[in-house]
Design goal:
Blueprint: E1 4-14, E2 20-30, E3 36-41, E4 49-54, H1 55-63, E5 71-75, E6 83-90, E7 93-100, H2 101-114, H3 126-144
Antiparallel strand pairs: 1-2, 1-7, 2-3, 3-4, 5-6, 6-7
Helix pairs in contact: 1-2
Amino acid sequence: MRESVQAEVMMSFLVSEELSFRIPVELGYETRDPYAVRLTFHLPGDAPVTWTFGRELLIDGVGRACGEGDVRIAPVDAETLGEVLIRLQVGGDQAVFRSGAAPLVAFLDRTDKLVPLGQEAALDDYDTHLDEVLYRILAEEQSAG
């Protein structure tokens, strides 16, 4: 059985209203962490930066504004499924990315075929890997702090 879904999407990094540039973003989903998706941003001149957040947040954000705190996702135009804004915030710093909705929906469709939404808890090994994932997150936070 396949255990992960990967995709690469070009997104616009919106530096200001006048300045933006396109960057590759890797989308990732793994059955060992079935509630989460990972977006790895490849900014020019910097090491890749990975954000992990709820798959359901990305699903909801394609169609309507949602999210609180560090991750907020919303369609650019609520009437159409054209583009999506992803806002990531750490303290007072914020990064905004614009993506076409279609590649996000295609990626999410592939994750749903691997683990249908609402069926995440049915994975036998999920609880086994939860401690491993939490340990990794805590280790990353401690090394960054």
